Each structure stands twice: as structure tokens, then as C-alpha cells.
Amino acid sequence: MRPLRLPAALLSLALLGACSSYQVTYDYDVTASYGRYRTFDYYTSKKGTGGTTNLMDKRVRAAVEKELQAKGFAMETKADPDFLVTYYPIVQERRYRTTTHVGWGWGYRPVYGHIGTSTSQVHHYKEGSIVIEIVDFKSNQMIWQGAAAGALTGLDNPEDADEVVPRAVRDILAKFPPK
């Protein structure tokens, strides 16, 4: 009979869970008039930085544009837009500990004995999230914010990222504009 490797099984389940799901949260200004918003641009382009800095930024930007345009918003780069969009992928180093206890005992009340040992391991992984913020152009106040915590966790190759990022952005922007 093969021994069960409990720490490896727990590690596999934890990573599988991390790869397959993310948690979407959002918050918004209840006093904003969302019905008047028709056009958007990116906050970075108004600050003069222009383009994106890496491949994940490009994926997120393309997904944000696609979702906003599908909702009827038009990209406005020549005149002043109604709102500005900023987004950023966040990747943080995370860790968790597993402990394995091995031992055996003997005896009966009132005499009992036990011999054993424990080993602990610290496992490191990167947790990635996508944050999208929407700012009213005229007031320069944030009116909406959404995030998909864990959406970028466990993306091992570009194909995974190309599949997960658009789905996460769609899920984030599902609540924009608020009803």
C-alpha cells in the first residue's frame, strides 16, 4: 500500500483552487450620475505616459476597452471624455505553512506514552489581482472601483492569461455602471 502524501495533496488542492477562481468586489459613489457618461479615455494617456508597460498591462487594457465598448461607451482621445479609466494588475508574494505530524502512542489509562515528530514547510506563491478604477473627468473624483482578487494567480503561460484576463475584466465590469 502506498503512503498518502498529505502535504503534497494539500498543496495541490490549494494551488488548484487558486488557479481556478477569483473574488470580484466593487464599490461606487452612490451620488454620481452614471447616466450621463458616454465616452471614456485612459487616465494614463491624460497624464502623458501613453502606452502600457508590459504584456499583462496590454491584456488588461484590451479587455477593458472591449467590455466598455460592448456596454455602449465610446473611446474619446481627441476631446474631453466623460470619465477616465485606470487599471493595474497587482502581483504580491504570498506564503502558507504546512505541518506534518508523525508518531505513535501506546498504553491504557492511567499510563500512556507517545513518540512523534513534526516538520513544517513554508510554501511561496504569487497572488495576482486586477483593479479597475473609474474617475469622473470634470471633478477628478473616483466614482467606481472594482477588483478581481486572485485572477492572475497561477497563470503559467500566455494561453492561460489570454483566457482568464478577459473573463475577469468582464466579471469586474459587470457591475458598471451601477443601476
TrEMBL record:
Keywords: Signal. Residues 24-178 form the DUF4136 domain. Residues 1-23 form the signal peptide. This is DUF4136 domain-containing protein. It comes from Geothrix oryzae.
